[in-house]
Amino acid sequence: MRRRRAAGVLALVGVAALLVAVAPRAGAATVRTSWHSPSLDGTVQGAPVVVGDVVVVATEHDALYGLSLRDGHRLWGPRRVGQPVPLSVVASKSPAADGCGDIDPLGITSSLVVDPTTPPRVFAVAEVLGPDDAVTHDLVGVDPATGKVVVGPTPIDPPAMAHPELEQQRAGLTFANGRVYVGFGGLYGDCGDYHGFVVAANPDGSGIAGTFETADAGGGDRAAAVWATDPPPVDAAGHLYVATGNSEDAPGPPAFEYGDSVVALDPNLNVVSAFQPSTYQADNASDLDLGSTAPVLVGDGQVFELGKQQKAFLLNTANLGGADHHTPLASIDSCGAYGANATLGTSVFVACRNSLQQIVINRATSPPTLAHGWTAAVPAGGPITVASGLLWSVDVTGGTLDALNPVNGHVVAHHPLSLDSSQHFPTPTVAGGWVIVETANGLAAFTLPGSRGSAKA
């Protein structure tokens, strides 16, 4: 799961006042900044959530805050979950990890999730330093209106997780089937004896309801991280779809393990079906994670996946890889993608390092096929959000968050906003007339065209 570091301080983009397609390098449409939050106590790595008029956001100092959606002022917080884990402690516990990791300290890293039942709750997973430098990952739930802790903190590390200090909880959280699903992977650098896991946590704080381990410690293999920043999707049957990174020391055929795979899991995290590219052994050896993005459900019983290995796959949710686990419905050469791809109609928009690309699904044939659409002359390099008729993505090379017309890929707006250099996957969140993005230690919001947001440039 090793990733290239983003160079320098990143920057982001705002919102267009007009939905007018302009050439990607032409002058931008009018942009209105709505608000900037107060400085928080640490960097923001995960996307916030919006519940009513409250924006809940977390930091790497294991703190949660509630901000006003209307003007960004602090309503509550910091609500501290525990003490974050410095990388120096990780290295002291596991010397093989010395020099690994690109976030310091490690606190709440992943995107938050909402349990929409009444009253709603917002869940986070915090990496916490305990007595004698013990490291745990704790589930916590808060009331978004008040910040009151109503669930936990509850440790959710499965018994098979031998080295929790080597496990990074970066994958976005998913709430489904009455559970919080949590993905685990390793530190930047793929250091030490870590294993990919998915955990089904009980939302009442009573612990773990199920566990899926991607690499079997008993089999001698390791790694196979679940680390893509987008939350794993869930279909109408309650099946969860996760993609994994490269495994190491994996057994060869005919043995089967779940590195470099897309896996469908039932609500209890039993494997329903799985897909591995036929090139998985070479991909594993070259650190070409299939799971550098999360799977995308694209309708018609199909799922799309594209990771580092530069080949996109269309899979059948009824049996992801067919009888041999290696047969997709369709595939096409593409690019190395990171963070989150997105879908709209029969198009999938992929977050390439060098460009943002459209891939079109043709269902007029049997089996369906994939074809290249437009290519935008702006790198995505991170998660793509489809909202308000636009594509929103972070150009980590140029330092902007771009708004694109999904019909032709033309950039219609951009706006710079400085981020910390450790923020590799800032995710645009669109809600209530605003586009909200992470800054180094806070959030900034921009007004959507025709929205009720009040500009405060």
Explain how this protein is built.
The protein is mainly beta and 457 residues long. It is 3% helix and 37% strand. The model is unreliable at 2-31 (pLDDT under 50).
Q: List unreliable stretches of 5+ residues.
A: 2-31
The secondary structure category is mainly beta
Q: Shape from CA axes?
A: globular
Mean pLDDT across the residues is 87
Major beta sheet, specifics? 5 strands, antiparallel
| Distance between the ends | 39 Å
Radius of gyration over all CA atoms, rounded = 21 Å
Total beta strand runs: 34
**Binned strand content:** 35-45%
Helix content: under 10%
Number of helices, counting only DSSP H or I runs of 4 residues or more: 2
Defining traits:
single chain, 457 residues, 5-stranded antiparallel β-sheet, 4-stranded antiparallel β-sheet, 2 helices
